[in-house]
Automatic annotation (TrEMBL):
Keyword Cell inner membrane: no
Any Pfam family hit: SBP56
Family: Belongs to the selenium-binding protein family.
Protein name in UniProt: Methanethiol oxidase
UniProt keyword terms in alphabetical order: Selenium
Length: 483
């Protein structure tokens, strides 16, 4: 092995190299929530076989249980990613992508899993007690990103009392807590997701809301106190850890969740998906300035819907996930309530073009007899229910993960168990699922694979709810490249 190869970390030198030379995914690590809080095995990581040549294709082949109730596992991240690709040739230790980090939004516990000893059977190797975060006056950990210095950073959404706040906690490579990240007195009002671009000395974060509010599910009266939910994106100086700009997106940008810089580390621009009212905003750095500007570029109209004997109400699409292909050509968004998944060509990022759409369920399907759509500015008729391998899909499209080559998109159904129980009780009762969408990356377009279904209604301890997904070889939402 050459000296040059000896000093490479676990990633790829560029996003395009990962797209061209990365392996086809064979395993899909899926964060899975147990909605029955009396079931002692609790939430778990489901290892799903996605190798089409395997006899256990599209089956759960292993479950790594937390054996603790009330965690609400949500998102996950790696201890090392493509930011670790270049390592000093004299380094004593070369990073390995061998740990998957699973924060718990409700219990504040953090589970670290060994995925290297046996990738098909990950095992918990360390548990960070929830009191560790509370000792730093932070709770509700969400997004995990590895850093180029070997540390791991996790965003948080609340203080020790569950009030809305924003900060980030740092852990070293052995998962010892190093404290919080933000310096100075200025902090955003809320926290959620984040993405950094060291080339531009910038990090962007988004906002959900106060843990004491969202943990109990959305309530109509929450509209009377919007101070506990977010509508801003926040920009930090990466080098000094200080907040330098906040952009208020207003009610159109209410609950901006997943935020993505372009994968190309020299592009100081990106997108944020705003959940409730189904908008996507584009942001970019001004020329000759450190400040950023934003522009609404995707606007999915609200539908007026009557449920049962209730008064008609506006139903937003609920864009709770967005994902960019590694070449920054296609943006995918979900509409959890409306039931469809969309592909946009963002070669001109300020003017996205809709190039694909697939319906995977949702709240307005034709067979729902207690639903009446009063006004729909997009559809002439309600969508048909989606049936895969004999099963009617309950719920709507939620989390997504795109293959490195951009040809396969995996889609799960659970948003957050308290919200699932309110909005899709049948999905909770019957269990969630994962489906696969085949992508035409050359010309644009999407098609449901009618032979792929991972059914979480048949799990050993009752129906469960699949959420975020990752591949052992890296994926389109966890790897950040350095220029």
């Amino acid at each position: 092995m050459s000296e040059q190869k000896c000093c490479h970390g676990p990633g790829y030198p560029t996003p395009l190299d990962a797209m061209k030379n990365g392996p086809r995914e064979k395993l899909l690590y899926t964060v899975t929530v147990q909605p029955n809080l009396d079931e002692p095995h609790g939430d778990y990581l489901a290892t799903v076989d996605v190798d089409p040549d395997s006899p256990t294709y599209c089956q759960v082949i292993h479950r790594t249980f937390t054996n603790r109730t009330g965690n609400e596992l949500h998102h996950s991240g790696w201890n090392a990613c493509s930011s670790c690709y270049y390592v000093d040739k004299n380094a004593k230790r070369i990073p390995k992508r061998d740990k998957l980090v699973l924060p718990s939004v409700n219990s504040d516990f953090i589970y670290v899993l060994d995925v290297a000893t046996d990738p098909r059977k990950p095992e918990i190797c360390k548990v960070v007690d929830g009191q560790v975060l509370k000792s730093h006056n932070v709770t509700a950990p969400h997004t995990t990103h590895c850093l180029a210095d070997g540390n791991i950073m996790i965003s948080i959404m609340g203080d020790a009392e569950g009030n809305a706040t924003c900060d980030f906690v740092l852990f070293d490579s052995e998962f010892n807590c190093l404290g919080t990240w933000i310096k100075g007195d200025k902090k955003p009002h809320c926290g959620y997701d984040f993405w950094y671009q060291p080339y531009w000395d910038v990090m962007v974060s988004s906002e959900w809301g106060a843990p004491k509010k969202f943990r109990r599910g959305w309530r109509d009266e929450d509209m009377n106190d919007l101070t506990q939910y977010g509508c801003r994106i926040n920009f930090f100086k990466w080098s000094t850890r200080t907040l330098f700009q906040t952009i208020d997106l207003g009610m159109e940008g209410f609950t901006p969740l997943e935020v993505r810089f372009m994968h190309d580390p020299k592009r100081a621009e990106g997108f944020v998906g705003c959940a409730l009212n189904a908008k996507v905003f584009y942001f970019k750095k001004k020329e000759d300035s450190d400040e950023y500007v934003s522009k609404k570029v995707i606007d999915v109209p609200t539908k007026l819907v009557k449920f049962g004997d209730n008064e008609p109400q506006p139903v937003g699409g609920m864009v709770s996930d967005i994902i960019l292909s590694l070449d920054d050509r296609y943006l995918y968004i979900n509409l959890w309530r409306h039931g469809d998944l969309r592909q946009y060509d963002v070669s001109d990022p300020e003017n996205p073009k809709l190039t694909g759409q697939v319906f995977l369920g949702g709240a307005i399907c034709k067979d729902l007899t207690d639903v009446e759509v009063i006004e729909d500015k997009e559809l002439k008729e309600r969508p048909e229910p989606c049936v895969v391998k004999g099963r009617r899909l309950e719920g709507g499209p939620q989390m997504m993960q795109l293959s490195l080559d951009g040809k396969r998109l995996y889609v799960s159904t659970s948003l957050f168990s308290a919200w699932d129980k309110m909005m899709y009780p049948k999905m909770v009762e019957k269990g969630g699922h994962i489906v696969k969408i085949d992508i035409d990356h050359e010309n644009g377009g999407m098609k449901l694979d009618e032979n792929f279904l991972v059914d979480f209604g048949k799990e050993p301890y009752g129906p469960t709810l699949p959420h975020e997904m990752r591949y052992p070889g890296g994926d389109c939402t966890s790897d950040i490249w350095l220029a």
